[in-house]
Amino acid sequence: MAPPRRRRRSSRGAGRDDAGSDEPPTAEPRPQAEPDAAAEPRPAATGHRTAEVEGGFFQRLKRRFVADRARVKVASLAGEDVVLRLPVDAATLLAGGSRKIAITRAAACPCCQDGGDPDCVCSGVGRVKVRETVRVAVPAGARSGARLRLAGKGTAGLCGLPDGDLFLVLDPAPVEGFRREGADLFGVIDVDARLARAGGVLQVRVPRGTVRVTVPAGTKTGRRFRLRGQGLPVWGGQGNGDLFLDVETC
Ligand SMILES: [Zn+2]
Questions:
Q1: Ligand 1 center to residue 69 CA distance, Å?
Q2: Among residues 171, 190, 224, 235, which is most buried (max CB within 10 A)?
Q3: Beta bridge partner(s), residue 210
Q4: CB atoms inside a 10 Å sphere around CB 176
Q5: Are 97 and 183 in contact (CB under 8 A)?
Q6: Chain segment 48-85, per-residue pLDDT in tens
Q7: Is residue 189 located within the same domain as residue 232?
Q8: H-helix or E-strand containing 97?
Q9: From the CA of 110, how far away is ligand 1's center (Å)?
Q10: 153 CA distance to ligand 1 centroid (A)?
C-alpha cells in the first residue's frame, strides 16, 4: 500500500497541507503550533499558509539583523571609557608613588586601521586586544572612590573618533590601628593609670613613625589628644590632616 501513495505525493509537489487528507491528523506538526508563527497575521487561504509564515519569519529575521548591524556599527566606532579598581597600599597612601599597571585594551588594529577588512586578524572589527603596561602617578592621601584619568587608554576610537579614557578608581588600604575620616585619623592611646595620675611623656606610634605625647597629670579616660599634621596628606590639597587619640587608662 505504501509505495504508490508516496509516489503520488511526490508527483504533486508534496505540499505539506495538501497531504493532510490522506494522513492521520497527528502525523506532522503544523506551522500553527509554533508560537513564532502564531504572532503573524494569518492569510485566509490555508493552502499558502506555510509559505506566508516562513516569509514573515525571514523578513523579521532580516529586519533584526540589519538593525543589529547598524547598532553595532555605530557603537563600535566611538572609543569607550574603561574603569578599573586600583588598590593603594599604605606606603603609597602616605607618600604617594608611581605605579605600573598591566592592562588589556582594545587598540586600533595595526593592519587595517579603520578599514575593517573581514580577512584581517581583527576579523573586520578594526580593533585588537593588546596587553600594555601603563605608569600612573598616585598622589598621596588617596581617597576611596577617587578616580585617576589616563587619557586615551580606554578602547580605541575608529574613523577619527577619539580614544576612550582609562579611569582608575582608588581603593586605599586602611591605616592600621586608626579610623579614617578624610585626611584625619582617629585612634586610642593606652595610658598607664599611675602615669595618667602623675603625668609624663609617652612615645606613641603614628602612621609616619613615633611621636612624643605629653600626658598632663590627672588625665582621665576619654580625654582626647590632637596631634596636628600627623594625619594623612590632604587629597587634592596642601598639608596633612590631624591625628586624634582618645585616652584609655589601664
Ligand atoms: Zn584589522
A1: 18
A2: 235
A3: 205
A4: 9
A5: no
A6: 433 344 445 555 555 555 545 544 444 578 899 999 99
A7: yes
A8: strand 97-108
A9: 7
A10: 19
The residues with which 150 forms a beta bridge, in sequence order, are 166
**pLDDT-derived band at 124, boundaries 50, 70, 90:** confident
The CATH number covering residue 89 comes to 2.60.260.20
Q: How much distance in Å is there from the Cα of 174 to the middle of ligand 1?
A: 45
The answer to whether 230 touches 242, Cβ cutoff 8 Å, is: yes
Which residues form the domain of 63? 46-77
Residues 96 and 60 in one domain: no
- Taking residue 22's Cβ as centre, other Cβ atoms within 10 Å add up to 10
Mean pLDDT of the chain: 78
- Please give the distance, rounded to the nearest whole angstrom, from the Cα atom of residue 127 to the centre of ligand 1: 6
**Environment class of 231 (CB within 10 Å of its CB; exposed 0-12, middle 13-18, buried 19+):** buried
All residues at 6 or more sequence positions from 7 whose CB lies less than 8 Å from its CB, including other chains: none
As given in the structure block, the three cell numbers for residue 65 are 539583523
Question: What number of H helices and E strands is found in the chain?
Answer: 5, 11
Centre of ligand 1 from the C-alpha of residue 108, in Å = 8
Grouping H, G, I as helix, E, B as strand and the rest as coil, residue 7 is helix
Q: What is the value of pTM for the model shown? A: 0.65
Give how many domains the chain has, as a whole number: 3
My answer on whether 152 and 94 are in the same domain is yes
